[in-house]
Design a protein that fits this description.
The protein is mainly alpha-helical. The chain is built from 9 helices and no strands. α4 crosses α6 and α8 packs antiparallel against α9.
């Protein structure tokens, strides 16, 4: 009979039917605050799981205590500062050379040196007023030991290099007038090489130039390549500037290159500038001491 269910009709199990997603959300909403609190606790657990990486990254960012790791303190020590430093140095070298060539005066050479120093100081002052690379200005007792040992060793090496051609190294001398050293000689032959030159030149070549080069190259090329390029680049510029201001022989170029490389490597290894300043100071002071001693003996 048509009113009777057919034997071929499939048997539907109502308990096996899954409710649609909308009805499920309605049921969970109808179940009261227990369902909503469960979802909120789930969200809290997810956020709790995600929180530690963010906190660890934040702590890692705040834990930077060295400019060699990057960070905000060297953010402005990049291409812009390097370009300004090179332009200022080039302009001061040209102006100093012009003064030395045109001005017929015993003060011409000293004035040219002062002009070059001013060209170095301007980008240094501008850089440190913008930011200070963290750790660069730290002072440690070990820096004094570096200065004494490495400065004396470099001066000894310089004398040995000059004697390689078979002739003994010539002792330096101080200019005398009527048997005594004039005040201008004391200022420019004694005070300036020992006090002014090491600070000005190291802060320009080994702080501004080296740190800027390293900061620019660290991310794309890695720390080793960036350090090598920064050391060689700052040393080459250091030697070229001294070669322009004073004509030197091969032994002088080699000695200046060794001084620049040692100071650059010292800054890169320690992250501090004062060790390089003290090495340069002892290197120059030993030269002045030899000059004063030779003048006293003669």
């Amino acid at each position: 009979m048509p009113d009777q269910p057919s034997d071929a009709a499939p048997v539907v199990d109502l308990w096996s039917l899954q409710p649609p997603s909308g009805s499920g959300s309605a049921v969970s909403g109808a179940s009261g605050s227990s369902g909503s609190s469960g979802s909120e606790s789930g969200e809290d657990e997810a956020s709790t799981e995600d929180a530690p990486p963010r906190r660890s990254r934040r702590r890692a960012h705040e834990a930077r205590t060295d400019w060699r790791l990057g960070g905000r303190t060297v953010f402005r020590w990049r291409e812009g500062l390097l370009a300004i430093a090179l332009i200022s140095l080039g302009a001061s070298v040209l102006l100093g050379s012009l003064v030395a060539a045109v001005w017929d005066s015993p003060w011409a050479a000293a004035s040219a040196t002062v002009i070059v120093w001013i060209g170095m100081l301007l980008p240094v002052a501008w850089a440190f007023t913008r930011s200070r690379p963290i750790g660069l200005l730290r002072v440690r007792a070990l820096d004094v030991l570096y200065g004494l040992v490495l400065g004396a060793l470099l001066r000894t090496t310089q004398g040995w290099i000059e004697g390689l051609d078979g002739t003994p190294a010539v002792l330096p001398s101080v200019v005398r007038v009527d048997g005594s050293v004039p005040l201008s000689g004391v200022m420019f032959d004694v005070v300036a090489p020992v006090v002014v030159a090491p600070v000005v030149e190291e802060f320009f070549f080994r702080a501004v130039v080296l740190v800027s080069l390293y900061t620019v190259l660290r991310r794309p090329f890695g720390k080793l390549t960036a350090g090598l390029a920064a050391a060689l680049g700052s040393t080459a510029l250091f030697v070229v500037v001294h070669g322009i201001s004073s004509v030197g022989d091969v032994s002088g170029v080699v000695s200046l290159s060794l001084l620049g490389l040692v100071c650059a490597v010292l800054v890169l290894l320690t992250g501090r500038i004062w060790g390089a300043v003290l090495v340069h100071l002892v290197y120059n002071a030993s030269y002045v001491a030899l000059a004063v001693l030779a003048s006293a003996m003669t």
